[in-house]
Amino acid sequence: MAGKYKVPRGTYDILPSESYKWQFVTNVFKEVAREFNYKEIVTPIFENNELFERSVGEDSDIVEKEMYKFEDKKGRIFALRPEGTAPVVRSFIENGLMLKPNSSKLYYFGPMFRYDRPQKGRYRQFYQYGIENIGSNDPYIDAEVISFAYMFLSKLGLKNFELQINSIGCKNCTQDYDNALKEYFTPYLNDLCSDCRKRLMKNPKRVLDCKVNTCKVNADNAPSMLDYLDENCKTHFNKVQEYLKQINIPFKVNPKIVRGLDYYSQTAFEFIDTNLGAQNTLIGGGRYDGLAEQLGGKNMPGIGFAGGFERLLLSMEEEKLSFGKQQTPKVYLITLGNEAGATGIKLIMELRMNGISTAFDPDKTSMNAQMKTANKTGAEFALILGEDELKKGKIILKNMANGEQKEINITDIINSLKDK
Ligand code: HAM
User: Fold this and answer.
1) Cα(163)–Cα(147) distance, rounded to whole angstroms?
2) CATH number for the domain running over 16-170+230-318
3) What does CATH list as the number for 331-418?
4) Fewer CB near the last or first residue (10 Å), C or N of the chain?
5) What's the whole-model pTM score?
6) Tens digit of pLDDT per residue, the chain (420 long)?
7) Per-domain residue ranges for the chain?
8) Rounded to whole angstroms, how far apart are CA atoms 127 and 112?
């Protein structure tokens, strides 16, 4: 049965049969955040458009092609957030969080918006989980942020993923590298896609992570950023690797990771699902030491990551992992007759008040129909209250798994269910 309207292309509903999976994954993430002493931050889903142009970058695909921009009634230009880092850093500066205790390790969840071509694992409204660690450029912090992501994926039970890391250097080293790339790619100019021809002029590193086949092939023997790092960036990158080894986190150095957002410097990393097809980046992150200053704050280094829930769930399904138990009621109340019905609805309130989840369906009257529904809900127990029981002040408690039933005093019901 199709109604008149459909969800917009690239968006979807999270239905009750799926939402428990989201809750499960969110809870594991929150648990890891607690272990790492990160606190939640929530920012609006729309921000001043300029915030993203300045940070993610005017020449990035996100700003150039994918932003949902709109004008409000006063002519201000806003954008639905395409990512979470710029808003978090904006909030960090605006609220002076650098001066507040326990406020520089932050995590967030929420919908992000990018006008991209939808496909499996890629949506126009998608949901990210992410963390930002602002204030330190110690390479240990890089390893810690990476270990957060690693621990999260591991705690979910995922196995088919690979951590790839790179250093994209700093302003100091990037100029020579960009020139080397321009020189390298110029003979292949006609073989590059139209986007990459532009990228070569403005931001040649982006050619390295183009997904178009001819660009990929031509990038095979391109010079490596790692040969152009200055001493400081080289030492930093080596230390990050040492720390990762010390804490037993397996990784591969992949000099082709450049990340598509302009604010990155030095460490860049991705967790790749080795089974998923085209959209196989589970998590992407990196250092953004110049971002706070660019947004008008003090010079404050930072590093973080974000991952898409959709891809994570796909990977978990692929690996046949558990999402915990779907929510089912503990009790289904069956009442027979008007008087029992009246007592029943009071009892329901009492059960729920005492933390016992209870289902009841006033539309069903016969014993048979109510018992069938009780079965469908997956309730652990049925409570059956008929006129006979009511007269005796009793109620029947039936264990739905083994069919055992016994009569107990109505007044004892809360206590006997609490123990179960
Ligand atoms: P990003 O690489 O643009 O980085 O996105 C991070 C992750 O979000 C991707 O690896 C992917 O899992 C998911 N994702 C991105 N676009 C889509 C889409 N259209 N549909 C579904 N999932 C998607 C960032 O957003 C940075 N803010 C990460 C970061 C945080 N860097 C430092 N701190």
Assistant:
1) 10
2) 3.30.930.10
3) 3.40.50.800
4) N
5) 0.94
6) 689 999 999 999 999 999 999 999 999 999 999 999 999 999 999 999 999 999 999 888 899 899 999 999 999 999 999 999 999 999 999 999 999 988 899 999 999 999 999 999 999 999 999 999 999 999 999 999 999 999 999 999 999 999 999 999 998 998 999 999 999 999 988 899 998 998 898 889 989 988 888 998 888 899 999 999 999 999 999 999 999 999 999 999 999 999 989 999 999 999 999 987 778 999 999 999 999 999 999 999 999 999 999 999 999 999 999 999 899 999 999 999 999 999 999 999 999 999 999 999 998 889 999 999 999 999 999 999 999 999 999 999 999 999 999 999 999 999 989 877
7) 16-170+230-318, 331-418
8) 6
Question: Which residue CA neighbors atom 31 of ligand 1 most closely?
Answer: 285
* Spacing, Cα 282 to ligand 1 middle (Å): 8
Residue with tokens 């954008």: 79
User: Which ligand 1 atom is at minimum distance from the Cα of 288?
Assistant: 32
- Out of 38, 112, 164, 265, give the residue to mutate to test ligand 1, the one with the largest number of ligand atoms within 8 Å of its CB: 112
* 307 phi/psi in degrees, rounded to 5: -140, 155
- Dist CA 106 CA 92 (whole Å): 10
Q: Which residues contact 228 (CB under 8 A, 6 or more apart)?
A: 169, 173, 174, 176, 177, 180
Residue 345 in tokens: 């609805």
Q: Which residues line ligand 1 (CB under 6 A)?
A: 83-85, 114, 116, 121-123, 126, 128, 130, 132, 261, 281-286, 304-308, 310-311
CA of 96 to the centre of ligand 1 (A): 26
